[in-house]
Amino acid sequence: MPGGGAGLRLVLSGAAHWGRAAMVSSAPTCPGQSSQSRWLTAEERNQVLLDLKASGWSELGERDAIYKEFNFKNFNQAFGFMTRVALQAEKMNHHPEWFNVYSKVQITLISHDCGGLTKRDVKLAQFIDKAAASV
Questions:
Q1: What is this structure's pTM?
Q2: Which carries the bigger pLDDT value, residue 22 or residue 49?
Q3: Which distant-in-sequence residues (6+ apart) come within 8 Å of 102 by Cβ?
Q4: In the prediction, which pLDDT does 119 show?
Q5: Whole-angstrom distance, CA of residue 101 vs CA of residue 86
Q6: Average pLDDT over residues 6-19
Q7: Nearest to residue 15, comparing CAs of 33, 28, 2?
Q8: Which of 6, 9, 55, 118 has the fewest CB atoms within 10 Å around its CB?
């Protein structure tokens, strides 16, 4: 692997996992959270997952989360991308789980405080795709 060495593992997450989110038609907000932290309705979920999968995101079978791997030319590009994402994550108060080795960045998005995928994850995934495209 270029650059060698062990990877840099950063896990930035919210509150403890509350269990898998139920898909409900009314899509209530998670306890003590904003409208961006609400569970997705089944219809919303189907649509956003189609869009996210079209841009390379995948569902994680063992968790109600989404995952994508990004490859850059070198470590500087990868870390610059991670810095942009980190600044946006702070603004949103929503932090990804990620793993970086040299030019590769793997990202998992889940709303830990809600126990699954929410609008926050979708919004951050869309930002992440734009950030990666601009590198």
A1: 0.74
A2: 49
A3: 1, 2, 3, 74, 75, 78
A4: 92
A5: 17
A6: 35
A7: 33
A8: 6
